[in-house]
Amino acid sequence: MDDAPQENTGKANPFTVVPIEITISVGKARPLIRDLLKLTRDSVLPLDRRVEDPVELYVGDRLIARGELEEMEGDNAGQLAVRLTEVTDLSGEL
């Protein structure tokens, strides 16, 4: 591809309006299979993180950011959100 600056033709890049799915990882569980087979409604599955620990944001399998879970207020009260605390640079490293 040509590395020269692109001339602005006044047209918006069509890729800017394509939605992308971001997965938020709050933790992992590692139960034994025998314990997994005993799970029922109302079972509690402990995770490897605490409530105040940062969550990780992924696009596919690529880590793109870290943040803190928050609860929305106002019209969206009760809805979960993430406040970003770290964002990857262009090389993909935190």
Q: What attributes does this structure have?
A:
94 residues; mainly beta
Description:
Its main location: membrane. This protein is mainly β and 94 residues long. It has a single domain (20-87), classed as SpoA-like (Surface presentation of antigens (SPOA), Roll), CATH 2.30.330.10. Helices cover 5% and strands 28% of the residues. The protein contains one helix and four strands; from the N terminus they run βαβββ. The protein has one helix at residues 33-37; strands at 23-25, 55-59, 62-71, 80-87. A four-stranded antiparallel beta sheet has the order 1-2-3-4, with no helix packed on it. The chain is extended and about 60 Å long.
Question: What topology emerges from the helices and strands here?
Answer:
Blueprint: E1 23-25, H1 33-37, E2 55-59, E3 62-71, E4 80-87
Antiparallel strand pairs: 1-2, 2-3, 3-4
Short précis:
With 94 residues, the chain is mainly β. The protein has one helix at residues 33-37, and strands spanning 23-25, 55-59, 62-71, 80-87. It has one domain (20-87): Surface presentation of antigens (SPOA).
CATH class: Mainly Beta
Major sheet: 4 strands, antiparallel
SS-derived structural category: mainly beta
- What is the count of structural domains? 1
Number of strands: 4
Say what oligomer this is: single chain
Low-pLDDT stretches are none
Shape descriptor: extended
